[in-house]
Amino acid sequence: MTKALPPSPDTLAGKAPTLDDVAARAGVSTATVSRYVNNPAVVAKATAERIRAAIAATGYIPNLLAGGLASSRSRMVGVLIPYLTDSIFNDTMQAMVEELSAAGITVMMGLTGVSEARTEDLIRAALSRRVDAIIFTGPMTAQVEAMVRRSPALFIQVWELPDDPIGIAVGFSHHAAGRDIARFVMQRGYRRPHLVTAEGARAQMRRAGFVEEWARSASGAISESDVEVPSRFGHARRIFAEIRRLPELPDVVVCGSDYLAQGVIVEALAAGLRVPDNIAVIGFGNSSIAGEMRPTITSVEVDGARIAREAIAAIRRHCAQEPLAERWIDVGFRLVARESA
Questions:
Q1: What is the pTM of this model?
Q2: β-pairing, 299-301 with 334-336?
Q3: What does the alpha-carbon distance between residue 133 and residue 126 come to, in Å, rounded to a whole number?
Q4: pLDDT tens track of the chain, all 341 residues?
Q5: CA distance 167 to 154
Q6: Domains and CATH numbers, the chain
Q7: What distance separates the 2 farthest-apart alpha carbons in the chain?
Q8: Is 160 exposed, middle or buried (0-12, 13-18, 19+ CB in 10 A)?
Q9: Quick one: which of 119, 144, 158, 198 could link to 112 by a disulfide (CB 3.0–4.6 Å)?
Q10: Nearest CA to 134 among 161, 160, 101, 109?
Q11: What are phi and psi of 133, to 5 degrees?
């Protein structure tokens, strides 16, 4: 495996690296680097690894836009999400893609998974095609941050409001969402909540908001289950088995997604329990299944169409070289009470 090289002085200084910089660092000709960029398979494996390491170290972004005109607007936006299977992003992203397409913008979508290397590769690929903007929901790394800060593309983080967004952030407070779910649970008279939390940072923020509000305003212990990312409908069977082993059955299960909530409801009904009479269930994301399931699922709704509209407005201002009105756009959220709680 090729050893990672330290960042080059040009990278640290913020200067856009060139093909020559990569070639010099990898010890090959610029023609070899060019061949690798266009078709990595034609370059010998050892050479390809050296070039890849040099590209990563320098932060070089090739220009794959036809004609190579730096001033060209691609009218293309990269949308990068971790996954699609049982994803709470699905409905939001569908609304976003529809809004972007209606505005005449071509969407280049990529699935990053949980791999930092794949995330970096996809962002590099998007920047290589000189996208006007990248819409991103994944965790940031130092390498990703360095790449996007050197790029003229607008970087838009959605579904969250980080303290210091690279470009702009369009989202909501996950901590506040967790707090409001706790308040709803207390107002409905539930006293034995069971939290089902995924390993991701945003889910952990919602958990923290719930736990803090519960400790401040309610009595009674919280029981919990953890699930890996991405959480799936199938996790519900294991979760429900854990719930049944508790000394006392929880009166409400708070899930990190509607898919998990659906699975818990299915398991509860199969065990002969009534929802919400014996056990209530709350989801998150207000996916289409939440309103179609029986019983319908109480959930938290995020306005994906508004996120898309705010992103499009920011992209238009960016392309027109107009100053952005604000770096944080809070679209809020709404708790939708239905039959399951």
A1: 0.77
A2: antiparallel
A3: 9
A4: 334 444 444 444 456 788 888 899 999 998 898 888 877 778 899 999 999 888 888 888 776 554 444 445 678 899 888 877 666 667 677 777 887 787 778 888 888 877 788 888 899 888 888 899 999 987 778 888 888 888 889 999 998 999 889 899 999 999 999 999 999 999 999 999 999 999 888 999 999 999 999 999 877 889 999 998 777 788 999 999 999 999 999 999 999 999 999 999 999 999 999 999 999 999 999 988 899 999 999 999 998 888 888 988 898 888 888 988 899 999 999 999 999 99
A5: 6
A6: 9-58 (1.10.260), 76-172+304-331 (3.40.50.2300), 174-301 (3.40.50.2300)
A7: 72
A8: middle
A9: 119
A10: 109
A11: -160, 160
Residue position matching structure tokens 């023609």:
31
- Residue 155, amino acid: F
